Amino acid sequence: MPPSLKCVTEIRLAPRLSGAPIADHALLSDCHCAALVTIDGSVDWLCFPRFDSPSVFGRLLDADAGHWSIRPADHYTVSRRYLDRTLVLETTFSCPAGTVVLTDALAMGPDNRGHALGKGAPRLMIRSVTCTEGTVPVEVSYAPRPEYGLLRPLLSTVDGGVTARGGAEWLVFSAPVSMDIAGSTATAHLPMSAGQTHYFALHRSTLEEEPAWIWSQAQLADRLDATVEAWESWSEMHQHYQGPWRELVHHSGRVLQGLTFQPSGAIVAAATTSLPEAIGGERNWDYRFSWVRDASFTMEALWVAACPDEASDFFEFMTTAAAGSIGPGTPLQIMFGVGGEHDLSERTLPHLAGWRDSRPVRVGNGAWVQQQIDVYGELLGAAHRLADQITEVDDETLAFLTALAESAAQRWREPDQGIWEVRGEPRHFLYSKVMCWMALDRAIKLAGALRAGHRVDAWRQIRDEIWQTVISEGWNDKAGAFTQYYGSSDLDAANLMMPIVGFLPADDPRMLATIDAIADRLTDDRGLVYRYSTEAGVDGLAGTEGAFLLCTFWLAQALAMAGQVSRARAVFERAAAYTNDVGLLAEEVDTESGELLGNFPQALSHIGLINAAWAISQADSTA
Ligand SMILES: OC[C@H]1O[C@H](O[C@H]2O[C@H](CO)[C@@H](O)[C@H](O)[C@H]2O)[C@H](O)[C@@H](O)[C@@H]1O
Questions:
Q1: 329 C-alpha to ligand 1 centroid (Å)
Q2: Which GO-annotated molecular functions does the record name (predicted)?
Q3: With a cut of 0.90, is the ipTM above it?
Q4: Residue 577 domain-assigned?
């Protein structure tokens, strides 16, 4: 059966573990920050008020780093889904004596530009619990632990809830029943019977902001309804894809929107930090930043859906974030904070045990100082794809886009860390050269809009020189394929992008040989694709990792473009089968166990899913 959103799945629960399987989590987003809720009703990850803020609930990374759970005190089975066309989560607990339904959302803010998902969010998480049948005793446990679990705040009861003070945070918890406080944890036990609904909420402010407050039950009901409507209306406006796996594609679009930081137009790579690429290993990174590459791919994946405002916001963000830092001798920084910050220095948090003891837990990302010359191609690729939708192109943006092309022209011969951000020595990675080719190819196509007609001849000459060099230096007879870097005989799944960006036709014999080599020799026993072989040691890191979902979707896309549609479908379905019960993908899949691995949900995986489905729908329609 083809994979689709498996929305409602019956699960009989084992006892609660810390480090719950990654697939057990569901995403909430208000397009400013994100939360993860486990299948047994616990908020185990919440970073307020931005994606990259320190967590208030961090049980994902350590049993004592904070949580907020609402679940039956009785034995239960559970099923869950997102409400249709939203990122509002509904979890249904079925107990011997009755049923309760939990509805969770990060509240959307009012919008002053007529947008469905606004630029302001009230920094409010809402949870409603309704008994729909019989009688069910419900337990609530609220254990805020700000600053990644470092603080145990002072809790006090107030009329209508509990306040928490500690460090810079001011947290107000609205509750319809009185809470018992023991240390820094508040609990309640509420017997519920059919027809009853209770709303709980967490509101956050800091000392310099307007204080957070207790919300009434009616206010919370209204806010929850408004949030559902905001998502429905965004989906209505943006989701027009009608091809195969429609539900999964639309849902992936919402996940990408949920990873967008509305105030600036930045897009984060994932909602989490330090979910490992191998259990117990050191490959644990903070993804709550806006990579030029990942964000450009996201804009492209959403191009059918993108609104003029969103495309313009994104390019304005990139132009502003990079302002003054691109030009002769100043390479474009490869990633930024969601507010445009440059310094993303990496550090470890030694007080956290890590997900299933995968240490270190890192915040910040050392890749911010790396040289990665692919970024010019990805940004200009997105600009070209979205050219019709970028309405507010000011002179600064035009100059910025032109500077990208000039940088690619000047720097394409330099070695770099490549798309995979290797921490080993810089090399002449093929993918980076192909992206420099793409930068110039797209700049030539955009030359009129860029008012750069006088540069076309020079750009064309360099573009063609890059093409010739990649063809001669990048092919390896021993491997019978294009390989990872000049002179290497190792495969790299990033070379599947060569046909995708139009560098070579997918049915060119060299490309077909590369696609087959990757499908045969760079896959695990399940047929999922690794990004490269870690045995070669090129990435400078210890240990191995799982198969990479984006790369598996690239294989499906390249096969579809080569006209091998039934193979493409099989590969697509193999990868899409790893969506969890609410349609979410992490970065990787554990080769041994088949568990999701790595940060979650990961934009690149959902981008791959959308693009591969699209390519297969195109191949179907031309067959
Ligand atoms: O493999 C080591 C590198 O792993 C991370 O990079 C990966 O995630 C990025 C964000 O999605 C993506 O752009 C990149 O292609 C991936 O390889 C990590 O961010 C790096 O610091 C690390 O060196």
A1: 25
A2: trehalase activity
A3: yes
A4: yes
